[in-house]
């Protein structure tokens, strides 16, 4: 059982790490991966048919903790904790007296007869007490003092579960803005627009958010928003200047889509491999041509399908890659206006790929004033 510190309306954690409200899903997974020897048997729960309508859940089964992430922006919405053998330490049981001593008085709680649970709410924090051993539901004494003493709760009543969230109402809570402590020198994409003209996509315009970091940074540092544009034909230096260093550089060892190319040289092996700049916090991968080192293709995560493809889709089996397990099954790739939409079996889009038209060395880069979509 983990021994963690509870900070109402903020986080659950210890000196080594913390799960902070507003934290991105990828950062939460990274913490679990780094501490896999301590935090074991983690489940990832999601809706297969309506993934954008239900929260994403990281379930720490051995520690009684559930991390619920907003399905749309994938930020930590609230923390759900089943109380085990201790609350703050192994010597302290999670009784109502301990809650009163630790957090002070609050408004009278709410009894849920269906759950047989009594909910005691603080700002950003709520406790649920198990009523199985009680002979009857707790009774209110309106004329008595306010706070915990106004409820007829037996001594030693144990906490069953705890929620950490933002605001006063758990049912109305939303994932807060990302805390400054979660940036860790990274940039995040607040919005990604496709730059287009009448022929198709020209590139991407990204609205980025970042926070300063490093020695001497003031505690009241604010999140900054900047805009950057990446176009087909940009060099590696252009992309590095706009977005900074990628989290990873991936060199392609094969191209499973090459068989669908009309080029007569599609079966001729290449002497050098194209490579990706992977920007995990942006949800964007940028493919560079191995010969010219110019931007060749973009991959970007999106949420809704645009337009109606005219041709039949190509079936993509990702399980044939080095990772031979794929819980999502095969996907369909639809081509439309120099864009490829990868659609899963639940009709949600897994990725969209933008690619440039064939270029010659004499062609100039398209004007950046083209319309965005």
What does this protein structure show overall?
There is one protein chain. With 373 residues, the chain is mainly beta. The chain is 7% helix and 32% strand. It contains three helices and 22 strands. The strands form four sheets. An eight-stranded antiparallel β-sheet has the order 4-5-6-7-11-10-9-8, with helices on one face. Strands 15-16-17-18-22-21-20-19 form an eight-stranded antiparallel β-sheet, with no helix packed on it. The longest helix has 10 residues, at 25-34. 22% of the residues are buried.
Structure described in brief:
One of its GO terms (cellular component) is dendrite. Belongs to the PHAF1 family. The protein is mostly beta strands.
Layout of helices and strands, plus pairs?
Elements (H helix, E strand, L loop, with lengths): L4 E3 L3 E3 L4 E3 L4 H10 L7 E4 L10 E5 L4 E5 L6 E7 L13 H8 L6 E3 L4 E6 L2 E6 L28 E6 L23 E10 L2 E11 L13 E8 L4 H8 L4 E4 L23 E5 L4 E5 L6 E6 L13 E3 L14 E6 L2 E5 L5 E7 L18
Antiparallel strand pairs: 1-2, 2-3, 4-5, 5-6, 6-7, 7-11, 8-9, 9-10, 10-11, 12-13, 13-14, 15-16, 16-17, 17-18, 18-22, 19-20, 20-21, 21-22
**Continuous helix count:** 3
Helix content class: under 10%
Query: What is the tally of beta strands?
Result: 22
How big a fraction of the residues is strand? 25-35%
Question: What class, by secondary structure content?
Answer: mainly beta
Poorly predicted runs are 84-88, 140-150, 300-307, 366-373
What is the residue-averaged pLDDT? 76
Identify the overall geometry: elongated
Spatially, the strands of the biggest sheet line up as 4-5-6-7-11-10-9-8
Rg on CA atoms, Å:
26 Å
| Alpha carbon gap, first and last residue | 49 Å
- Secondary-structure element pattern, one letter each: EEEHEEEEHEEEEEEEHEEEEEEEE
Biggest sheet details: 8 strands, antiparallel
**What's the structural domain tally?**
2
